[in-house]
Amino acid sequence: MSFAPPRIVPPESLAQEAAAWMASSLQDALKTRPRASLALSGGGTPGPAYRALAAMKLPWERVDVYFVDERFVPPDHKDSNYRLVEDTLLKPLGLPASQVFRMQGEREDRDAAARDYEATLPPVLDVVLLGMGPDGHTASLFPGHPAMEERVRRVLAVVGSKPPPWRMTLTLPVLNSARAVLNLVAGEGKADAVRRALAGDLSLPAARVTNTQWMLDPAAAGR
Ligand SMILES: O=C1O[C@H](COP(=O)(O)O)[C@@H](O)[C@H](O)[C@H]1O
């Protein structure tokens, strides 16, 4: 298994380029289907890309927004991935709740929340934006965690090694069946994990998402 060479983008253009990739992947999906699904990550990297995407002209009434992972916190919590997406994309677009499929991080029964989210997912996601932490986690799949081996369930509640620990995540079969996947990674602290994933180190979840394109800033690319 090998990846296409990563695209290395100057930091000042990264958000715009990632947004352009999402917009064009959504347009591709909408050429052949009435609606397109967009699954988004949280964390510190993608916010500016979501703001740039919100400014792009698309038939937004045909786009449904899903989540790659979520922390078990309420939706208005500062660590909520939903809150990030709400602030940077959903509110600027004024996207109605009927087009937003939120992972319910406020639920006490975490396994039930994961099962319920699984029931909302389309059979195949059209466009997925991933990220990667310095420890090599992607979505909320952490290196060495048994969730990396899940083959049947599409959404799992897991305990990760990054705070907040309790999370909900899409599993590798979902990510690997998606039509277009971008891994957007920035920052020097991630260069080692990026190098290992691109070299095919299967202990890293990102190395197991085989249909991914990579977009890196020079620091994450080790330059
Ligand atoms: O915890 C998370 O981390 C990853 C990577 O985020 P970053 O802050 O290093 O950009 C993110 O993709 C994931 O959605 C998030 O829950």
TrEMBL record:
EC number: 3.1.1.31
Pfam family, one: Glucosamine_iso
Domain of life: Bacteria
Recorded GO MF terms: 6-phosphogluconolactonase activity
Enzyme class: hydrolase
Keywords: Hydrolase
Pathway membership, UniProt: Carbohydrate degradation; pentose phosphate pathway; D-ribulose 5-phosphate from D-glucose 6-phosphate (oxidative stage): step 2/3
UniProt keyword ATP-binding, yes or no: no
Role this protein plays: Hydrolysis of 6-phosphogluconolactone to 6-phosphogluconate.
Family stated for the protein in its record: Belongs to the glucosamine/galactosamine-6-phosphate isomerase family. 6-phosphogluconolactonase subfamily.
PANTHER family named in the record: 6-PHOSPHOGLUCONOLACTONASE
Protein name in UniProt: 6-phosphogluconolactonase
This protein's encoding gene: pgl
